[in-house]
Design a protein that fits this description.
- The protein is mainly alpha-helical.
- It is elongated and about 60 Å long.
- Helix content is about 75%, strand content about 0%.
- The termini are far apart.
- It contains 13 helices and no strands.
């Protein structure tokens, strides 16, 4: 019995207690668990008020307070997909916030939630023919981009070790906001985390270049070169040659003194 999850152990204890006429002590334990779950929900910014109970219904509310937040979050996410299909952006945003509040240490909800808002909702707003003019559409799109960005950043606060949240935030800055310096920062942080793809190491240098920051790009390319082993520097590989060609180009453009260059010739 000790190997069973806490939920099953409590339920088994309740059944035994009912049979023995000892419901009162078990009821106290059950209520204490619900109280702990309520405290956890408040700690993560989720207040189980009457309006939320009405929206969730009795079954989901009991599930949350009984410690089955992961199951409830999975169920609610199905509604996120439905809201996306129906282009109910505000409802979708509320459901995303509910899922992430229920499961703050599950990066997938932050990652998919940020994408739904910053990309799907914002693109939907850009194409909304019911808006009277392009300015209104662009304003609405920016609203959802900012909402998605907020989800990504709160996801990073709760899961700083998850490289994809950093990378996707960089992608959002790069492609939707054209803020290449912030994109460089988030790509850099992503590349430093365990299990991050090697290709991310080159993204900060590329972003500095897009931002017109030649000095920043030069330092980033040079840092990549210095990370290579002597054997790697001798390899005839496209990625190595790209690092070298960018360093040579920027040393020439920045008029770096020959004695300080990586490639003086």
């Amino acid at each position: 019995m000790n190997g069973l999850p806490l939920n099953l152990r409590l339920r088994r204890a309740m059944l035994i207690a009912l049979l023995l006429g000892l419901w009162a002590p078990v009821k106290i334990v059950w209520e204490q668990q619900i109280a702990r779950e309520q405290d956890n929900l408040r700690y993560h910014g989720l207040v189980m008020n009457r309006q939320m109970r009405d929206e969730l219904g009795q079954g989901l509310t009991i599930g949350i307070l009984s410690g089955m937040r992961s199951v409830v979050a999975d169920f609610i996410w199905l509604e996120v997909t439905t809201a996306w299909e129906n282009q109910e952006w505000f409802r979708m945003g509320g459901l995303v916030n509910l899922c992430t509040s229920l499961q703050p240490r599950a990066p997938v909800f932050w990652d998919m939630g940020g994408w739904q808002l910053a990309w799907n909702a914002s693109v939907g707003a850009e194409r909304d023919v019911t808006q009277p003019n392009e300015l209104r559409r662009l304003k609405a799109a920016r609203f959802w981009i900012d909402k998605g960005l907020d989800v990504y950043k709160r996801g990073i606060e709760n899961n700083p070790e998850y490289w994809r949240l950093w990378s996707d935030t960089g992608l959002l800055y790069q492609q939707r906001l054209k803020d290449y310096k912030n994109a460089a920062y988030y790509y850099q942080r992503a590349s430093e985390l365990p299990n991050a793809p090697v290709y991310l190491e080159r993204f900060p240098a590329i972003m500095y270049g897009l931002a017109g920051d030649d000095q920043g790009a030069y330092e980033a390319w040079r840092a990549l070169w210095e990370k290579l082993t002597p054997a790697q520097r001798e390899m005839k590989e496209h990625w190595k040659e790209k690092i070298e060609s960018n360093i040579r180009r920027l040393e020439q453009k920045l008029s770096v003194p020959k004695e300080k260059r990586v490639f003086p010739n």
